[in-house]
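Reviewers asked in the last cycle whether our approach scales beyond single polypeptides. To address this, we selected a multi-component target totalling 796 residues and predicted its structure end to end. The input consisted of the following lines:
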Amino acid sequence: MVNNVLMTGVGGQGILSAAFILSETAFRSGFDVKKNEIHGMSQRGGSVCSHIRWGSKIYAPVIPEGEVDFLLAFEKMETLRRLSSLHKKTTIIINDMEIPPVTVSRGDTTYPQDVINRIKKYYPRVVTVKAGEQAARLGDIRIANTIILGVLAGRLGFDLKIWQNIIKEKFKQKAAAVNLKGFDYGLELNESLKRI
Amino acid sequence: MSDPKLLTGNEAIARGAWEAGVSVACAYPGTPSTEILETIARNYPEIKAEWSVNEKTALETAAGAALSGCRTITAMKHVGLNVAADPLFSLSYMGVKGGLVIAVADDPHMYSSQNEQDSRHYGRAAKLPVLEPADSEEARSFTKKALAISEQFDTPVILRSETRISHSAGITNCQPIEEVKTAGTFKKNPQKYVMIPTYARKRHIIVEKMIKKLTAFAEESQLNYSENKNTDIGFITSGLSYNYLKEVMPGYSVLKLGMIWPLPRQKITAFANSVKRVIIIEELDPFLETEIKAMGIRAEGKNITGYCGELTPEKLINNLMQKKIIPRAKYQHKSSYSVKPGTDNTIDTSDLPARPPVLCPSCPHRATFYILSKLKTPVMGDIGCYTLAAFPPLKAIDTTMNMGAGVAMAAGMEKTYKNKKKNIAVIGDSTFLHSGITNLLNVTYNQANTLTVILDNRITAMTGMQENPASGYTLQGSETKTVDFKKLVIALGIKPENVHQESPYNLKEFEKKIKDLMQKNSPAVMIATQACALLKRYKKSAPRRKIDPAKCEDCGQCLRIGCPAICKTDKGMKINSSLCQGCSICEQICTFDAIGPDNG
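The resulting structure, written as structure tokens, was:
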């Protein structure tokens, strides 16, 4: 059995950190793991994504189209860019947050409306999280990514201690504490959303 | 005792180099190869590592260390190997003493590159072996094998990576370090090391013999192995393509080539004879296909995989099914019930806006290009973040070709295209030091009447903030000599009165100086010095800007600089305070004085 998580969003949203934490968690849980991400030019405010795969044996470092089990969209409309990666039972976790691309901010076009309902119409498993707002409430806007990771963690079954240890190692003391808070909040949030 | 770690391909190459006792590592940064040297500097301080000023210098520096008998590695992106090609072809004749590995990372799909060149050709052209890892574990172990082969056969070895290998992480079975040789010796041997024609002619014969020996090695080596299963089809492949093949076509016979030059003819022929149909799976050029067909083997390849772009698992499976090589029913995957564009279940994505990469908020290049775009003269660009100024609304760059090119291209065009104005070349600080200096010397020597603008942002930004001779710091972050651009360009022959240095943040003064230089009737240089907005060591906190709605006429002037922080909304122009860094360029161009510091 191969498990595939695709993370998508905008450069600077902490996708590389989230991908590192998930891939290390899967690795330390005893699985074969592959992770891919794109660096360089695409990071300058462009759309970015990271593939994380684990199972007994993983070959390709990227997820074949239509095989994503969990899509983590750190920005709302970026979900639409990854539809060909999904299958009907993909769980889609969307951060209900708009980061207008420069094509929108300078007025060439508008931010697409009704994104979440459009997706919900065809995909039964859609979870929306206001991670940006919750991160601000918890004291640091940058932990939106660990909140989303917490929601995912509640659905994966890895030992929570492994996740938490990696978060502690990944960030410096103060940042580690606030990221752990974000992660725990994501776990709690997931409990309240369990039915989806 | 192996210690498994989850490493990217680049981290694994660095690890392999360290395990094999490499003592010198040199590189010029280039996506996707940059992290090889960064990992060495961070994790293995015992290796003498440096950012060299360009790839040619890096390979030459490595060659010097190798001749003393120490192991060395140099790393670069595919186009960097073109810069290093000059030493490469002669070093192949001279041989090495200590192992020398050239780690080169190609970029199929051009995620961060200007072309999709296939570096495997260099092995055949320069007559040296090429190893191609398929994942991180092979990146580590092949780096060690490459160093051993380099010493055994007295030749530099290319280790060919690519974006999806370099930037993918996989489980890597780390080993302890072998013996390190840090102190070398040098024994004169002009017949081997002085490539004058008399000696080089003899060395060429030795190189051809060496390639024969390497071919015999390739026949025996476990780097090339076959998995014999279904005999209907036999796939010949290497590197990343092997893993894509295993992903979508398990259960078929495969010959996996870990060493892709020179090729093991007997092994390939025997494999081809064991199956009914031979299909070669490789990205980019038909490198293996051409060679294998030349062996007299009937094979297919590019008619299935295509020449352009990266291979992906779905591209591979779809093409194999389309060509009826495998029946549709054979491939089961989760997406058989997927919602696909073009079906009844389509989700409308026609209104999905593009999200192109942009110059960052407060990027000093934005101000420079805003001024240059007003001059209406050709602007020859170069390689760096500033290529993004080619996009609207700035549309300020007319060419991007290769490192250093703009300086010479502006001069070349001036010979045949008189615009009554100077042609302009723009080039970043690191790019100028990489290959702009000689081109500017050519400008002054031949008195081309151009204006060269050095975009001096104190760092190599595009590849992720690497130090360079203008930043004042080394790869390890220790202080070093900082180049003085003004003195440098005067030494190259630019008249002192034809050189200005100014921060583009001082927009009016900057524009005045640019216009002054445009009037000169001999070559001129503008040094646009302003630290990259992401460079922490120069970061000053400036108040964010806000727009006073009472004064704003909604004219859209501020949108012309293409700052991602400025938004056009239903209620007029707004500045996104979470993005604004306070460079004040928008404030300086606003005709209605509607923008000012947000002191609230």
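Residues 197-220 of chain B form the longest helix (24 residues). We regard this as preliminary and will revisit it once experimental data from Aim 1 are available.
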